[in-house]
Specification:
Blueprint lengths: L1 E6 L4 E9 L5 E5 L2 E7 L5 E5 L3 H5 L2 E5 L1 E5 L6 H22 L11 H8 L6 E4 L11 E5 L5 E5 L9 E7 L4 E8 L5 E6 L3 E6 L3 E11 L12 E12 L4
Parallel strand pairs: 1-15, 7-9, 11-13
Antiparallel strand pairs: 1-2, 2-3, 3-4, 4-5, 6-10, 7-8, 9-12, 11-12, 13-14, 14-15, 15-16
């Protein structure tokens, strides 16, 4: 999966490949280098070069994908129904706002809570054949593409990701892929094809980051230094808690 981010040195866009392992961890590949995404203290995003990746990588591993469909796909009957429901829901919300009605947490419906905490979920749904047994380990992999096989990094870190991941186009609202844990997770990571990354701290807040790349100036003097540096600057925070 390819996203485009700003190259701060050349004032241009560069293509970065989003990679993943079987434990749901996210990596970015730029040129021949791999960078590992870590959620740090105070809910920050840190992207660190993985110098031992060549030793760990081996070969990519194939896994069968589950399918997802986008709810705004007008070719889909279910998509049309979901779009109509969304329009009706927006009209109902407008009517409630006009009446100055106030809603407290305990008065919210499950649908309203889901919209507040997981707004991207209204853009897609899973389409799994009943008769087909899908194989997966700790994480389930869903794709909206035509391919039925995913190649992920064959890395045995034995470290499960504590976040789910959604990769989507922010302009078309097309969800291209999701990685979903079978266990409870603390975060949801939304990676946009434009290089924006939203970190959903579930039940608390949503932080928006802009992912950028620049050449590491220390590389000239230290051959062991990172080839390049990924910068993830926080550009916004939204509270998810009703007041």
């Amino acid at each position: 999966m390819i996203i485009q981010i700003d190259n701060l040195d050349k004032n241009t866009k560069i293509d970065v490949i989003v990679c993943y392992d079987k434990c749901g961890n996210i990596y970015f590949k730029c040129d021949d280098a791999y960078y590992f995404l870590v959620i740090g203290d105070n809910d920050t995003l840190q992207i660190e070069q993985s110098h031992n990746m060549e030793k760990l990588l081996g070969h990519t591993y194939n896994i069968k994908l589950e399918k997802l469909k986008n709810s705004n796909d007008e070719k889909s009957l279910k998509g049309k129904i979901l779009n109509k429901l969304e329009e009706e829901r927006e009209r109902e919300n407008d009517d409630e706002n006009n009446e100055n009605s106030e809603s407290e947490d305990e008065g919210e419906t499950k649908l309203e809570q889901n919209d507040r905490f997981f707004p991207e979920q209204k853009y897609y749904y899973h389409d799994i054949p009943d008769e087909e047994e899908i194989e997966y380990d700790e994480f389930k992999f869903y794709s909206s593409g035509d391919t039925s096989i995913l190649q992920y990094l064959d890395i045995d870190l034995d470290a499960l990701s504590n976040y789910n991941t959604i990769i989507m186009n922010p302009h078309t609202k097309i969800v291209e892929m999701t990685l979903e844990s079978n266990e409870s997770i603390a975060y949801e990571l939304i990676i946009f094809t434009t290089g924006q990354i939203d970190l959903n701290v579930i039940g608390s807040k949503r932080k928006t980051f802009k992912l950028e790349y620049k050449i590491n100036p220390e590389k000239q003097n230290d051959e062991n230094a990172d080839d390049g540096i990924f910068v993830a600057n926080c550009i916004g925070i939204t509270s998810l808690i009703n007041k």
